């Protein structure tokens, strides 16, 4: 007999969400006016009744927009997971949301006249430019899934980091952009619903017309081509539809997190195996999930009415996803490796040795060179001794933090075979962030030691929960990553709520979240260097596991490697490295994700060389970012995490374009 969670297939969670949304919406409406007047308020409100006018122009349009945006995100997520053959793909993967966010920030600061056309059109233009850049970067590779994913991630990180720098130095002017980015669904009339409905209908029809080519993509490139399909053309069609869906949703209500990932994942695990039913059920699940979440936000006490719906979607999506993960087999498409052969270094040991010898010189230069009141200068002798206590801890912490996160990222990407795997999606950074936030808002002026202890406790709690979840299914990589993303969404909700509340302590939190080395002292720096050294020394002991695990669990077991045990150890090591780096210098997303890809581009393919190269490159990137951040706009400083993305993003995009 099928378990209850699978007995009804995808209809179970979808119908449940619609029933919840309808019930909560009825409670919201009942507080506004009697049930007998609902229909009249919808179709012909009495101009003399404020309660009917409020329901007609505020509540009903808001429900409609929630449904429409949920439809767009659910359908976009399902299409992207099929086209990119990656269970972690979602609209945010392509950088569409970050592009729209950046365009609004630029217009607010330097082109305010553009906002007179309407915020949605400015956001749509930014999303369109991001999409055009994505297609241009990946066209030479036939829109291969790995290239599209990497280009989208780099664009997203780059646009997000530039927006972060702008917000950091123009916080008061861009606080409204913060709120819009959290995904508020407030409406004042039916204009946005009228804007979305016909466009979504056209895109849904387009998705139906390309259903067969998308199904054939599931056979792999060889199988699809043997049936006469133009693989690049099918991918282009799917990507264009998904990009337009995501752009419309962002332009309408801002950034709505988690729905594009959760909806197709939930219905896929609930039994929607074929693409056609999966697209349909994912569309309905996205609509129901966002509607139910928004209705719950409206039902909350008036004091908390301003919670951002886009972030609070995790409140419903996370528990459902975590509940389904241990019970159901994932139906997510397998990750596809790159079709083109990767470059290989002829002498990787020599390349790594040269980098290791160069490292102390670069560290010394980062401490000696700097900008002061009289401009750029090179310190030596007594001048060097005077600045060393200030510069050396920061430089050493940046170097060590970048190395640890790059090591964690390389381990995850090799263990899972997924180019999207990165330290921040482990969920451990989320635990550290929540621990620090709880301390900041419960203690008066907490010290550095207290912050590290609180963050460590939060990270340890999340790690324990993840390990307990992973034991039930042999530490399946896809499930661990999905559970990590779900857990990370919780911290996103908390940060968004704090932003909406205009708390004065927010500026300190934003600075820390941007990856800053401002508060690092000698003890923190030495601890980070020691942990990074231990992690590098452990590479020879785990390299064989990481060489064999990508070949499949059966092959690894036949060669004497226990997949569950090795995955548990590797996951724990990655989580510990991520937590340590996060506690010392804050969450640095760019290095942990892109350091491993830079190492591969240099030809470091075997596990040992790849891990060592990732650590070396990640550390160097962060060291350079910290050095530039100290002096590029002296006496002001730019956080190393943001600057690493701003500087490293274009370089990586250039490399991707040349591949």
UniProtKB/TrEMBL annotation:
Predominant location: membrane
Coiled-coil regions, chain positions: none
Topological category with respect to the lipid bilayer: Multi-pass membrane protein
GO molecular function, one term: transmembrane transporter activity
Domain of life: Bacteria
TM region(s), chain numbering: 59-80, 92-110, 122-139, 146-170, 190-215, 227-246, 252-272, 279-304, 310-328, 349-372, 392-412, 424-443, 449-468, 480-500, 520-541, 548-565, 571-595, 607-628, 634-656
Annotated localization: Cell membrane
Gene Ontology cellular component annotations, sorted alphabetically: plasma membrane
Listed Pfam families: FecCD
One record GO biological process: siderophore-iron import into cell
InterPro entries in the cross-refs: ABC_BtuC-like, ABC_transptr_permease_BtuC
Keywords: Cell membrane, Membrane, Plasmid, Transmembrane, Transmembrane helix, Transport
PANTHER family associated with the record: FE(3+) DICITRATE TRANSPORT SYSTEM PERMEASE PROTEIN FECD-RELATED, FERRIC ENTEROBACTIN TRANSPORT SYSTEM PERMEASE PROTEIN
Similarity comment: family membership: Belongs to the binding-protein-dependent transport system permease family. FecCD subfamily.
Protein name: Fe(3+)-hydroxamate ABC transporter permease FhuB
């Amino acid at each position: 007999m099928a378990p209850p969670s699978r007995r009804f297939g995808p209809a179970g969670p979808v119908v449940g969400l619609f029933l919840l949304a309808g019930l909560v919406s009825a409670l919201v409406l009942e507080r506004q006016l009697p049930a007998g007047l609902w229909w009249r308020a919808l179709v012909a409100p009495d101009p003399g009744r404020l309660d009917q006018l409020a329901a007609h122009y505020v509540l009903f349009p808001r429900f409609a927009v929630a449904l429409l945006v949920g439809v767009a995100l659910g359908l976009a997520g399902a299409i992207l997971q099929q086209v990119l053959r990656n269970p972690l793909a979602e609209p945010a993967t392509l950088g569409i949301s970050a592009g729209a966010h950046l365009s609004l920030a630029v217009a607010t600061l330097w082109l305010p006249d553009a906002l007179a056309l309407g915020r949605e059109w400015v956001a749509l233009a930014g999303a369109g430019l991001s999409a055009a850049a994505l297609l241009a970067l990946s066209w030479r590779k036939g829109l291969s899934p790995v290239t599209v994913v990497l280009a989208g991630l780099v664009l997203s990180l780059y646009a997000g980091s530039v927006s972060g720098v702008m917000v950091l130095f123009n916080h008061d002017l861009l606080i409204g952009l913060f709120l819009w980015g959290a995904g508020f669904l407030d409406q004042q009339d039916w204009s946005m619903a009228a804007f979305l409905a016909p466009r979504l209908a056209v895109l849904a029809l387009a998705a139906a017309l390309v259903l067969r080519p998308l199904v054939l993509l599931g056979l792999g490139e060889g199988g699809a081509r043997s049936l006469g399909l133009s693989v690049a053309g099918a991918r282009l069609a799917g990507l264009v539809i998904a990009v337009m869906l995501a752009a419309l949703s962002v332009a309408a209500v801002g950034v709505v997190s988690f729905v594009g990932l959760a909806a197709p994942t939930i219905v896929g695990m609930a039994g929607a195996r074929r693409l056609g039913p999966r697209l349909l059920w994912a569309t309905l699940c996205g609509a129901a999930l966002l509607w139910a979440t928004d209705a719950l936000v409206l039902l909350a006490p008036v004091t908390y009415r301003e919670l951002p719906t886009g972030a609070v979607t995790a409140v419903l999506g996370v528990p459902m996803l975590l509940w389904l993960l241990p019970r159901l087999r994932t139906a997510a498409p397998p990750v596809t490796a790159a079709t083109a052969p990767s470059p290989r270094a002829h002498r990787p040991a020599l390349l790594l040795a040269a980098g290791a010898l160069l490292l102390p010189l670069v560290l010394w230069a980062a401490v000696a060179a700097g900008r002061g009141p009289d401009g750029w200068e090179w310190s030596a002798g007594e001048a060097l001794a005077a600045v060393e206590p200030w510069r050396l801890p920061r430089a050493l912490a940046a170097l060590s933090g970048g190395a640890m996160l790059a090591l964690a990222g390389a381990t995850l990407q090799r263990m899972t075979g997924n180019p999207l795997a990165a330290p921040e999606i482990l969920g451990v950074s989320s635990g550290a962030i929540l621990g620090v936030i709880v301390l900041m808002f419960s203690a008066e002026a907490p010290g550095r030691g207290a912050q590290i202890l609180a963050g460590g406790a939060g990270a340890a709690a999340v790690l324990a929960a993840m390990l307990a979840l992973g034991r039930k299914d042999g530490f399946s990589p896809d499930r661990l990553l999905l559970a990590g993303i779900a857990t990370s969404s919780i911290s996103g909700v908390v940060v968004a709520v704090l932003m909406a509340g205009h708390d004065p302590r927010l500026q300190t939190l934003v600075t820390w979240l941007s990856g800053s080395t401002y508060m690092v002292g000698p003890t923190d720096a030495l601890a980070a260097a020691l942990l990074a050294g231990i992690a590098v020394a452990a590479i020879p002991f785990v390299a064989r596991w990481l060489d064999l695990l990508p070949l499949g669990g059966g092959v690894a077991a036949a060669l004497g490697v226990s997949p569950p045990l090795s995955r548990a150890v590797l996951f724990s090591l990655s989580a510990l490295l991520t937590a340590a780096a996060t506690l010392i210098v804050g969450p640095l997303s760019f290095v942990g994700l892109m350091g491993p890809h830079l190492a591969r581009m240099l030809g470091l393919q075997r596990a040992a060389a790849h891990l060592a190269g990732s650590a070396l490159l990640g550390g160097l990137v962060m060291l350079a970012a910290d050095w530039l951040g100290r002096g590029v706009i002296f006496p002001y400083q730019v956080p190393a995490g943001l600057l690493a993305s701003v500087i490293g993003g274009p370089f990586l995009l250039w490399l991707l374009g040349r591949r």
